[in-house]
Fold this sequence. Notes:
Layout: H1 17-32, E1 34-40, E2 44-46, E3 55-60, H2 64-76, H3 98-122, H4 139-160, H5 164-177
Parallel strand pairs: 1-3
Antiparallel strand pairs: 2-3
Amino acid sequence: MGAPVNTTLPLDNGWCSERLERVFADCFADKLHTRLRGGADEPLYQPAQQQGGCHVLYYRADYFASALHEVAHWCIAGAERRLQVDFGYWYAPDGRSTAEQLAFESVESKPQALEWYFARACGYRFRVSVDNLDGVSGALSELSGFRRQVCEQALCWQREGLPRRAAEFYHALCREFDTPATPDALNFTVAGLD
């Protein structure tokens, strides 16, 4: 294992979500008939409406982080999930109860850990999101626990390897953004999520 590489850079106007769309298309448009598209009011995965059609993964507006996050969900979803709208997952909007928030966090640690890898591949700053600004009080302590979950998952993938589609996208992002760090050379710590 090589020395840890810090590929996190300050936010900058150089990150254009259309670059992510192009990289995603190069990786997955032909072989998995899936496109990444911005401009949505809310993220949504829409499976093809007909046999041989194109699946579309929508992300919010032109937000770079939203695109990375939605791709992370897609990379984790299995073949059956990718045949369902939004992968068949429930979503409760802002203002979730404590129980709803814990359920949300239990399924969000994996995509957010994967988003962290993708952000590193782009040299983009990753920020953990509990996606519940109007929700339960005591958010700081809960965020701390969620950060730990995200970090533990990132370290798990560092030991065991990224899911296949995620690894392909990660390496394509490294080429696009000229950040040649291999996943095992990245440094993941809870403190790095502050």
